[in-house]
Amino acid sequence: MKAIVCRNFGPVDQLDYAEFPERTLLPHEVRVRVHAAGVNFPDSLKVEGLHQIKPPLPWVPGSEIGGVVEAVGDEVRSVKRGDRVMGVGDARGGGFAEQIVLDAARVLALPSGMSFEEAAATPVVYGTTLYALKQRGRLAAGEWLLVLGAAGGVGLATVQLGKAMGARVIAAASTPEKRALCLEHGAEHAIDYTRADWREEVKALTAGRGVDVAYDPVGGDAFDEAVRCMAFDGRYLVIGFTSGRIPEIKVNYPLVKGFDILGVRYDVWRDGCWPEARANLQQVLAFYEQGRVRPLVSGRYPLPRAVEAMRSITSRGVTGKVVLVTG
User: Would you call 235 helix, strand, or coil by DSSP?
Assistant: First the structure.
């Protein structure tokens, strides 16, 4: 089969579109013909050798796909050949390819109206977000939720899920177009977090109290300001550092303000607590069927152009999700 192959850790330019051996199908596994694969910021970090997880080489990136089951192992009863499914990979990756082999428990039937591209745009951003808001952030209906980088793939997922969970969502985005997009996807307010006084706007919106939960995939200067927007007993969720700078904070600040800073390592939790992670994804699919969440696929690239797709993510100019399509 054809795949995007990482033979050495380094710049994404060195990725190779080449033949890659198919993995033998074990009794509990399924083989899925990949129609679309989601592209995420950590894919580039892993290729560059900058991620906590360093897969054994050679390695095929990609951890989320939409496709059709082609074959099932002898022990598999949950799906059958021809089923339309969403597949969720593990640390071995494998999504940037024409086929992928997965444990049968890691594939979920698609709602009838969900496209393969929407399926490929769901597991990482919506899975990360629901885990962050539900298990880590304990978000409750009526609470204020601040979303940084809100127009990106994970940001829009957070806006949508926050609203679906009953929160009052403040979306922080850098351009008028991005802020308008956030409002279209359910944000109650949208603010410009490139302005020097943006945290004062957050405080004004919350009548001086601050936000109960902050969702931060950005880091850098945004973190420095956002931690000053927290309410007492708030939960600050650290997702990542797309700004490129890992911020620091003196621990007396969360003590005095009385809020928690919580790291969100979805991949570790997902792979260690898969039944609960699967239940979260089933909840996301139920929200989809109810019309309460809708993945926004804004970039589509043929599989051989994976490097270009990954660059579009790291440039931070993308709204919504980027996917690779195989035909």
Answer: strand
